[in-house]
TrEMBL record:
Signal sequence bounds: none
Domain of life per record: Eukaryota
Organism this protein belongs to: Arabis alpina
Protein name as catalogued: Retrotransposon Copia-like N-terminal domain-containing protein
Region (Disordered), start-end ranges: 245-306
Pfam families linked to this entry: Retrotran_gag_2
Taxonomic lineage: Eukaryota, Viridiplantae, Streptophyta, Embryophyta, Tracheophyta
Length: 306
């Protein structure tokens, strides 16, 4: 049997190691144990593509990107340096192994750069390897995320609930701010989270807020949100019923007014119709003594017709 070929390969600053190069029948399909064939993205992995990174929420984007590269079997390239061979090594299989690594690294770097917005793509387009690109992003934006802890706390402290917006919409906002603080590595006990949520209730819920404060039994965040949802639903139902009652009362009053105007002369419908007020059509002259003179008859006699 022929002897299995070997080659000296150096990974980064590590000392050279001897690797066994498997014999392949065709050079186009040479695959080594250290550098397996690169997998192309499937329909499933394409659906896992993270949003393009624009400089915000780096930790979240980094985790999504790492998972996406893992589905492609490319995550190792963000940790490994490019392997090097001695200058006098001309073994075909060893050179093919290095070429396979460089091809996989090229794909990995391309996938990372494709998930950057155009402005950041231009900034990091000169990275030589995936590891260099990954480390550059981590160094720049993880340090900037250090101040995001204070920003997350400030957003929670400054958030105010109002009566003009739906209660549960604002409760979800506060809950998301608490999760954001937790994602920044700051631990908040659940008792504090519950107290913070109660304290931020809007002025219209002052009575309910005082009721919750007086409860001695421990309450979880999940239980509090459930109580708030029930209270909000009950108030919405009461407001809807009250509005319906006001509308019904207004319609009833309008109907009664119209009915009264229609039947107010029911006993004598013609009463008042054609009635003419007294008119002063005759003129009276006063006598010298002061008494008014009698009016002269100006009509026609029924007997003589004169």
């Amino acid at each position: 049997s022929s002897e299995t070929p070997t080659a000296q390969v150096q990974f980064g600053n590590q000392p050279p190691v001897t690797v066994t190069i498997p014999v392949a029948t065709q050079s186009e399909t040479v695959t080594t144990t250290q550098f397996p064939t690169v997998q192309m993205p499937s329909a499933t992995s394409v659906g896992l593509l993270p949003d393009k990174f624009d400089g915000r929420s780096f930790k979240m984007w980094q985790k999504k990107m790492h998972f996406y590269l893992t589905t492609l079997n490319l995550e190792k390239y963000i940790r490994e340096d490019c392997p090097t061979l001695p200058a006098d090594n001309t073994d075909f299989h060893a050179l093919a192994s290095v070429d396979a690594w460089r091809h996989g690294d090229f794909l990995c770097k391309g996938y990372i750069q494709s998930r950057l917005v155009d402005q950041l793509f231009n900034v990091f387009s000169n990275a030589a390897t995936s590891k260099e690109l990954w480390d550059s992003l981590d160094k720049k934006y993880r340090s900037e995320d250090a101040g995001s802890q204070k920003n997350a706390v400030a957003k929670l402290e400054n958030y105010k609930m109002v009566d003009s917006r739906p209660l549960m919409e604002q409760v979800d906002k506060v809950h998301n701010l608490l999760h954001e603080i937790h994602a920044e590595g700051m631990r908040l006990c659940e008792t504090y989270q519950v107290a913070c949520m109660i304290e931020k209730l809007p002025p219209g819920f002052t009575d309910f807020k005082n009721y919750l404060k007086l409860k001695r039994k421990w309450m979880s965040m999940e239980n509090l949100i459930m109580r708030l949802r029930i209270e909000s639903t009950n108030r919405m139902n009461l407001e809807a019923a009250s509005a319906q009652n006001r509308e019904n009362n207004a319609n009833l009053a309008e109907h009664q007014t119209a009915k009264k105007g229609k039947w107010q002369n029911k006993g004598n419908p013609d009463k008042g119709k054609g009635k003419v007020g007294p008119q002063n059509t005759q003129k009276f002259k006063k006598k010298a003594g002061g008494e008014p003179s009698k009016p002269r008859f100006s009509g026609t006699c029924n007997y003589c017709h004169k």
